[in-house]
Amino acid sequence: MTRWWAGVDWSEKLQDCAIVDEGGRVVTHLRVEERPAGVAQFVGALRELNLRSHRFSRRQVPVAIEDGRRLFAAELQRLRQPVVVVPPAVVARHRGRLATASSKSDRTDAALLANIVRMNPDRHRTVPETSDQATAIAMMARAQQDAADRSRELMLSLRSHLVLYYPAATEAWATMQYGLRRPEARAVLAQAPTPLAAAALSKRKLAEALAGAGRTRLVDNEAARLRELFAQPRLRQRPATEEAMGARAAVLLADLSQACTHAQLLADRTDDLFSRHPHAAIYRSFPGCGPLIGARLFGEIGDDLERFATARGLCSYAGTAPLTWASGGSRAVTHRKVANRRLKATVHQWAFGTLTRSPGARRLYDDRREKGDGYASALRRVGGRLLSGLHHCLLHGELYSEEAMFGSGEARDGPEAGQS
User: Fold this and answer.
1) For position 215, which CATH number holds?
2) Strands 26-33 and 63-65, how do they pair?
3) From the CA atom positions of the chain, what is the Rg in Å?
4) What does the pLDDT read at residue 100?
5) For residue 335, which phi and psi values (nearest 5 degrees)?
6) Same structural domain for residues 26 and 109?
7) Number of H-type helices and E-type strands within the chain
8) Count of domains forming the chain
9) Are 18 and 38 in contact (CB under 8 A)?
10) 259 part of a folded domain
11) Are residues 144 and 121 in the same domain?
């Protein structure tokens, strides 16, 4: 039976669609809009490829596109058309490989996308069939992570500014979790954006600000500590300059407070969505896998249980499986730099959190450190083991078991063995 492949070069107005045969020749070219009629026209062209064969289905034609988030690709997936996402960097490399002059046109790029999948059918997989609920959780988890990163950037900007004229504010919460992002820190700075205003605050005013921000424990002791810290003699800017710098700090503080509020709202929404998914109980049964870590892991992995055939495939996707470089007599084992970066960062954070919650994870980490692994490498070992266990639990519908994961004795290396 003859086979075909399709490619779609996306643009804001018109989509160039090309269908190629087994020899790579373009048999159909269309320019359609990103509208229901445009998708229907493209799907109709796929149906017309072989009207004489009752065995042919348009779902046998993979459609290659550079951005799988577009509405055009989403509609094709809703119609159960197989979609293959080809990164723009891969397209650029193939463009120079297949032509002497690396010219760029939407029409030829559509055919190029189809031919990339045609020539490398085993190297490009279709977009996983995740549920609508899983996609929504992924969107919310990524949005929350972006908001948290934004609040962290604003905190660092505020801290860099405070160092120039208000060092006491940078010291006040430096050893506490979240630092200047803490509600009590933002409440105090809102009342005292300059050293002069901070020195004038009484213990009662500080206690009221702390209580208003939600602090309930040792409020008087904390107010006394801040009162003493702000009263210490410090180097100061000139009065007018200090006042102007305080005005700028107030603007930065307002932006930070808004970013923290958005991050918390998104965190609550993400937790609510993830809690209602059937896989949530499995994720949360693992040590160190709280509401946000679990949602971020799930958002990048999805709920298509056939997406990763083996645990090593999942570890490779997350960047925890080793990568071997061998040439002649030289051989080196390193970690993977090409991976899902969001998942890789989340696994690193997850592995770090398990060190105080899982004796087996701690034993594995300490064992790798004793054998010469660095901090990040040892955490990749732990992360790889956790992902392997997660893959098993998802496939078999089981909850986490410390005994099954690490055993009662020595730390054993899993599919991530040999990692540098």
Assistant:
1) 1.10.287
2) unpaired
3) 28
4) 58
5) -90, 160
6) yes
7) 18, 7
8) 3
9) no
10) yes
11) no
Q: Which of 223, 238, 273 is the last residue of a domain?
A: 273
Confidence band for 52, pLDDT divided at 50, 70 and 90: low
User: In the structure encoding, which two tokens stand for residue 218, read together?
Assistant: 């040792």
The answer to whether residue 420 scores a pLDDT higher than 50 is: no
151 and 242 in a common domain:
yes
Asked if 376 and 348 count as a contact pair (C-beta separation under 8 A), the reply is: yes
The Cα–Cα gap between 128 and 347 comes to 21
When pLDDT is averaged across residues 277-306 and rounded to a whole number, the result is: 95
Residue 54 belongs to what domain range?
5-127
Q: Say whether both 269 and 151 belong to one domain.
A: yes
First to last CA, the chain: 47
The pairing of strands 322-327 and 330-335 is: antiparallel
DSSP state of 127: P
Structure tokens at 297: 């892991």
Enter the tokens of residue 94. 């193939």
Name residue 50's amino acid. Answer: N
Domain contains 412: no
Element containing residue 333 per DSSP (H, E): strand 330-335
Residues 285, 222: contact at Cβ < 8 Å? no
Q: Which of 195, 181, 17, 187 is nearest to 113 (CA)?
A: 17
Q: Are residues 190 and 101 in the same domain?
A: no
Query: Is the separation of the CB atoms in 189 and 159 below 8 Å?
Result: no
Q: Is the pLDDT of residue 99 over 90?
A: no
Domain end (from 127, 148, 176): 127
Supply the pTM of this predicted model. Answer: 0.87
Distance between CA atoms of 418 and 243, rounded to whole angstroms? 58
- Cα separation, 260 vs 269, in Å, equals 14
Beta-ladder partners of 83: 63
Residues 200 and 255 placed together within one structural domain of the fold: yes
Dump pLDDT digits (tens) for 142-187: 999 999 999 999 999 999 999 999 999 999 999 999 999 999 999 9
Which residues are CB-contacts of 376 (< 8 A; sequence separation ≥ 6)? 335, 348
- Contact by Cβ (8 Å): 315, 416: yes
Neighbouring C-alpha atoms within 13 Å toward the C-beta of 317: 16
Which of 65, 48, 70 lies closest to 4 in space, CA to CA?
48
Q: Does 112 fall in a domain? A: yes
**Are 351 and 361 spatial neighbours (Cβ–Cβ below 8 Å)?**
yes
pLDDT tens by residue, 305-349: 999 999 999 999 999 988 887 777 778 778 788 899 999 999 999
* Distance, CA of 35 to CA of 294 (rounded, Å): 36
